Automatic annotation (TrEMBL):
Pfam families: wnt. Keywords: Developmental protein, Disulfide bond, Extracellular matrix, Secreted, Signal, Wnt signaling pathway. Ligand for members of the frizzled family of seven transmembrane receptors. This is Protein Wnt.
């Protein structure tokens, strides 16, 4: 590597160091935005119209034009982080921002499997929030989406969730157009698209019948998304099936060769990442695990400490006075396992 750097064009050298070490800088806006949203777990507000993040000029313009977007982004961020922490509660990586509790080992320093997942997750969450906001009229850039049906009768029945607008706005806000077309950019863009499409797959058509006693002489239909959590199963599957890529040819300023492009088409559905995740076993000490099977994996074979824990829950629920549900609170002792 060293001699390579000395004898070759400087650019080449810089580029390959960049590729092996970090990802940052390749697509400033796309990456900065995802990182800012996932990293900042406070509710700090910035002066610009996007409020939630230190946004680019272009992003602030988008937020300014689209009143309601700042709130939608806040919602998207919170929903993504909450869903991530819940879904990965019993996994070695639990959505933490760093690996092995080391501040220097940020998941955003390289393009790990986890980094790829967070890109998809956040893009999915923004898409979902925008689509939902369109239906409830919270965004000025979209109203009830009417372009999917054959006629406009749906307007009377209610609004669909505008997935297409969600997708468009997400890509626009993340500045896809200026993300570049080198290999790293292609990987990042694919990870975003995988996330967005995981929302698209949740899109269901719901119909309402009109006519005498449900005879359904006319029908109005619209598209609806499930709650964001219903996409998490699919996203987690993508996390597990993510494909490790090698950056191959740097001779043309990291330009993606046609060959690589074709191969990517084949893997269109997969999350892509570049670097192997460090071994996380050292960081799972003290983590709570779920059951024997999960504990074996999470604790990396070190065994568990079993404690009793009291949990209270609603129980013996019943109807009172015809229409109210009344429950007792039951207290129960359960085993809680903690990794040694
Ligand atoms: C379209 O609208 C007309 C009336 O406006 C209605 O009779 C018809 O059933 C609608 N078609 C569909 C597919 O909803
Ligand atoms: C890299 O790209 C150049 C120019 O496109 C090509 O001539 C060369 O064979 C490529 N090398 C590899 C290893 O793909
Ligand atoms: C994730 O695990 C780390 C230990 O590796 C722990 O310090 C942190 O609180 C956990 N985060 C959540 C949200 O459970």
């Amino acid at each position: 590597m060293f001699s390579y750097c000395v004898f070759n064009v400087l650019l080449l050298c810089a580029v390959s160091i960049f590729a092996s070490k970090i990802v940052e800088g390749s697509q400033p806006i796309l990456q900065k935005t995802i990182e800012a949203l996932f990293t900042d777990r406070s509710n700090e507000m910035y002066p610009g119209p996007c409020k939630l993040i230190r946004a680019s000029k272009r992003q602030n313009k988008i937020c300014e034009r689209d009143t309601g977007l700042a709130n939608v982004l806040t919602n998207a961020k919170e929903q993504a982080i909450a869903a991530c922490e819940e879904t990965f509660q019993y996994d070695r990586w639990n959505c933490s921002l760093v690996f092995n509790r080391k501040a220097k080992r940020s998941i955003f320093n390289k393009l790990f499997r986890e980094t790829a997942f967070v890109h998809a997750l956040m893009a999915a969450s923004i898409t979902h929030s925008v689509a939902k906001a369109c239906a409830s009229g919270d965004l000025s850039s979209c109203s009830c989406p009417g372009n999917f049906g054959k006629n406009n009768t749906w307007k009377m029945a209610g609004c669909g969730d505008d997935f297409r607008h969600g997708k468009r706005l997400t890509k626009n806000f993340l500045d896809f157009k200026h993300a570049g077309n080198d290999q790293i950019a292609e990987i990042l863009k694919q990870d975003i698209i995988v996330g967005v499409d995981s929302i698209g797959e949740q899109l269901k058509e719901v119909c309402k019948c009109h006519g005498f006693s449900g005879s359904c002489t006319t029908k109005t239909c619209w598209k609806r998304l499930g709650p964001f959590n219903s996409a998490m199963g699919l996203l987690k599957k993508h996390y597990h099936h993510a494909v490790k890529k090698k950056i191959m040819n740097y001779t043309t300023k990291r330009a993606i060769t046609p060959k690589v492009r074709n191969r990517m088409k084949v893997e269109r559905k997969n999350l892509l990442y570049l670097q192997k995740t460090p071994n996380l076993c050292v960081s799972t000490e003290g983590r709570v695990c779920k059951d024997r099977h999960n504990c074996a994996t999470l604790c990396c074979g070190r065994g568990v400490i079993t404690n009793k824990k009291t949990v209270s829950s609603r129980c013996r629920c019943r109807m009172v006075n015809c229409c109210f549900v009344q429950c007792d609170t039951c207290v129960e002792e359960v085993d809680q396992y903690t990794c040694k």
